[in-house]
Description:
Strand 1 and strand 2 (28-31) form a beta hairpin. The chain has one domain (5-66). The longest helix is centred in the C-terminal third of the chain and has 26 residues, at 41-66. It has a two-stranded antiparallel ribbon with strand order 1-2. It has 3 helices and 2 strands. Helix 1 packs across helix 3 and helix 2 (32-39) crosses helix 3 (41-66). The chain is mainly alpha-helical.
Amino acid sequence: xxxxxxxxxxxxxxxxxxxxxxxxxxxxxxxxxxxxxxxxxxxxxxxxxxxxxxxxxxxxxxxxxxx
Length: 67
């Protein structure tokens, strides 16, 4: 079953947070996905788009294997 857009974005955020963890800025601590999305929304959207492409390709390959 294909993932919904919101599921892909959640998986992307989780991947970023798992890879980079918490970012400390001054006294604040922020998840890496939040920092990227707020500080560089273009890079965030590009990364999300590339991540979505990979997920969709994997889904297509899985569908092909089932046939």
